[in-house]
TrEMBL record:
Entry keyword tRNA-binding: no
Domain called TACO1/YebC-like N-terminal: residue spans: 5-76
Source organism phylogeny: Bacteria, Pseudomonadati, Pseudomonadota, Alphaproteobacteria, Hyphomicrobiales
Keyword set, alphabetical order: Cytoplasm, DNA-binding, Transcription, Transcription regulation
Name of the protein in its database record: Probable transcriptional regulatory protein BGCPKDLD_2081
Database matches in Gene3D superfamilies: 1.10.10.200, 3.30.70.980
InterPro entries membership: Integrase-like_N, TACO1_YebC-like_2nd/3rd_dom, TACO1_YebC_N, Transcrip_reg_TACO1-like, Transcrip_reg_TACO1-like_dom3, YebC-like
Ranges for domain TACO1/YebC-like second and third: 81-236
Family of this protein: Belongs to the TACO1 family.
Organism domain of life: Bacteria
Amino acid sequence: MAGHSQFKNIMHRKGRVDAVRSKLFSKLAREITVAAKLGTPDPAMNPRLRAAVLAARAENMPKDNIERAIKKATGGEGENYEEIRYEGYGPGGAALIVEAQTDNRNRTASDVRSAFTKSGGSLAETGAVAFMFDRVGVIAFAPDVADADTMLEAAIEAGADDVRSDADGHEVTCAQDAYGEVSKALEARFGEPRRTGLIWKAQNTVDVDDETGEKLIRLVEVIEDQDDVQNVYVNFALSEALMEKMSA
């Protein structure tokens, strides 16, 4: 495992212990509200909203919280959030893409810049690192919904580009413009996925030593701690030893 998937697994395990649950729920609720405002409030008809709801369920967000976030959009309540992408570099030259939702562009830019600077990174111009990533759709299923061969065959038939299957489950990736059809076809066959959405996937990963890897993990933690930051994507790969150490 490398890059986005490897790193997010570590952050997810750490998050179970370290993250402040109320902050996580706040970010999930914000994405649900934004997704519902941009499209229909029906998750069955709004792929982005469906992805947001699935993400909330995966973190055990109460059903009432989810419904309240959707009602905020339909009732015209809450702030109007602007979506912004930031790009930058971390220790060892690793590239990062940061997605944020904000009602105050100046505040968020200042907070993100400060987070990079504090942890040995630097904010770059838009487009500086995005060319090293592809915007792709991801549909993830539990390992018991199918064996690897069955999932691969179904994914190919649906128009996907790649499938990674291991003990943790199946992760199907596809082109952004094929995401709707691929996710619909796979869900019809295997049921509701446990995670789905559009991500930035690194075209290639950069191997870093453990010292640099720890600095990069701290950088991402500081960035993710910002209230307006929704997602952070990276292009570095960590050693198995550091993965075990950070997951312990």
